[in-house]
Amino acid sequence: MKEGDKRHGTFNPVFKGNYPLCLQAIAGLRIEWQYMGDSTMPPLGTGLFMAMTDNKHLQDQRYWVYEDAIEFDGNN
User: Fold this and answer.
1) Does the chain have fewer CB atoms within 10 Å around its N or its C terminus?
2) Closest to 31 measured CA to CA, from 1, 3, 71, 74
3) CA-to-CA distance for 44 and 37, rounded, in angstroms?
4) What phi, psi does 9 have (nearest 5°)?
């Protein structure tokens, strides 16, 4: 993937409590995610994604999520 690419997937974190409330609110929902690049901190090389939703708080905060917490659709 290259920076800016988008995919659809479901946010399924192992522990929802490790995430801010605005991210907890989208857990289990299928939404669009934008690839922001690879992590430069452990775990190195893990993809980072930002949720593309109409949730104003998520847009303002620009939280990034490790790809391991997202179950991506198989067709994209």
Assistant:
1) C
2) 71
3) 11
4) -170, 175
pLDDT single digits (tens) 5-48: 999 999 998 887 888 888 998 999 999 999 999 999 888 889 99
The tokens 């690419």 sit on which residue? 5
Give the three-state DSSP class for 11: strand
Residue with tokens 């922001």: 36
Q: What is the pTM of this model?
A: 0.84
Q: Which long-range contacts (CB under 8 A, 24 or more apart) does 39-43 make?
A: 39/66, 43/68
Q: How far apart are CA 36 and CA 47, in angstroms?
A: 7
